[in-house]
Design a protein that fits this description.
The complex is a heterodimer of chains A (301) and B (74). With 301 residues, chain A is an all-alpha fold. Helices cover 77% and strands 1% of the residues of chain A. In chain A, strands 1-2 form a two-stranded antiparallel sheet. Chain B has 74 residues and is mainly alpha-helical. The chains are: A mainly alpha (301), B mainly alpha (74).
């Protein structure tokens, strides 16, 4: 495992060391600010690299609006056969070379990077510190002793008796859990196409996971060094911000956020009463029908 | 044995996947594809599932793609 991930250790540690070096003249080489910002910088770099994918997805979601009539036709035609409906929908996307779904690549791509960072930061957190990638002994010692709000970056909640460290780790773990919770709650309430009562089972599972995920984070977080907690909290904040933008500006068709936006746009463009009413009408219509394909798809997932 | 391999995928399908909303570019989704591929083809099915995951990327246009071609229904 280590040999496979070694190039990633090098890449991750190189980015951290480089940012740290750039910040050292400003904040000082052993300063916690330099090391913390180096970790934050790594998050920003990864997420910026992924932005084109994000933009691509938004563009295909916009293109979808043009396909709405076709989609409705399919929904009407295969009202009673949801499998066929989903198939036809996919064919339509393919035909028009647009697909509103993101694929799991963005998540899968980040996993090894996160794992590498975890190993690199965990190495710093070891006593004595273990160096990975391009980190030198000097770097490792400096990073391990650097303080984030008074707590050494290498410390974990369980591995310390110092009150400051306990407070800082608890704060970061809470931030990590809270951002996960709000991001998923926002997605559930506004970002996803509505589900009807026949999807109760799935709603139930979603609800359980909504609370289970932050709980799992909270439990495992007590073993994470502060550096990892900084990384995770930053990533979560970024994800939340990105999703907030999507929900406000480019919501998935059929989701409550989409209807909200349509209503808002209709209000803005409608000078007289009739266009407003017209604009709202198809949305209501759409709401009832859009549920069908999504429901099937999710059931099969 | 096959069911043993499929179990974590099924767990993902029921518990993890609903949290993130629909993501897959294909129909059936990669996880459904993997379940049917592994149950029908065993080891070869694992390779097929990996290949499907690779094909399901941001540059793909997706489409309809069953693991078992003749038998429709997962």
């Amino acid at each position: 495992m280590n040999t496979i991930l070694n190039p990633l250790y090098i890449a991750v540690s190189w980015v951290i060391v480089t940012i740290h070096k750039a910040l050292s003249p400003i904040f000082g080489a052993d300063s916690g600010i330099s090391w913390s910002l180096a970790i934050v910088g790594l998050v920003i770099l990864i997420r910026v690299i992924l932005i084109p994918l994000f933009v691509k997805q938004i563009k295909s979601q916009r293109a979808l609006t043009a396909l709405q009539p076709h989609m409705k036709e399919i929904q009407k035609k295969y009202k009673d056969d949801r499998q066929k409906q989903s198939e036809e929908m996919m064919k339509l996307y393919k035909e028009h070379k647009t697909n509103p779904l993101a694929s799991c690549f963005p998540i899968l791509a980040q996993a090894p990077i996160f794992f590498s960072l975890f190993t690199v930061l965990n190495g710093i957190g070891k006593n004595p510190p273990v160096k990975h990638g391009v980190l030198t002994q000097e770097d490792v010692v400096s990073a391990a002793n650097a303080k984030f709000f008074g707590a050494p970056i290498s410390d974990t909640f369980l591995g310390t008796n110092i009150t400051t460290v306990k407070i800082v780790t608890v704060f970061l773990i809470a931030l990590m859990s809270l951002t996960t919770f709000t991001t998923q709650r926002q997605l559930m309430l506004k970002g996803m196409p509505k589900m009807d009562s026949s999807n109760n089972m799935m709603l139930q599972q979603q609800k359980i996971m909504l609370y289970a995920f932050p709980l799992i984070f909270a439990i495992s977080g007590v073993n994470f060094p502060i550096g990892v907690l900084i990384y995770w909290s930053t990533t979560n904040l970024w994800t939340w911000g990105q999703q907030f933008y999507v929900i406000k500006r480019n919501p998935t068709p059929g989701s409550p956020a989409y209807e909200e936006l349509q209503r808002k746009n209709a209000k803005k463009s409608g000078h007289s009463e009739s266009p407003t009413a017209e604009a709202i009408e198809p949305i209501e219509d759409l709401k009832g029908q859009r549920n069908q394909p999504k429901k099937k798809k999710k059931k099969n997932k | 044995m096959r069911n043993f391999i499929v179990a974590p995928i099924k767990f993902y399908k029921t518990w993890v996947s609903p949290m993130f909303g629909p993501k897959c570019k294909y129909y059936p989704s990669c996880s459904s594809y993997a379940v049917s591929a592994i149950q029908n083809y065993g080891l070869k099915g694992i390779a097929m599932s990996v290949w499907r995951l690779i094909r399901c990327n941001p540059w793909s246009h997706g489409g309809v793609d069953y693991a078992v071609k003749e038998k429709v229904g997962v």
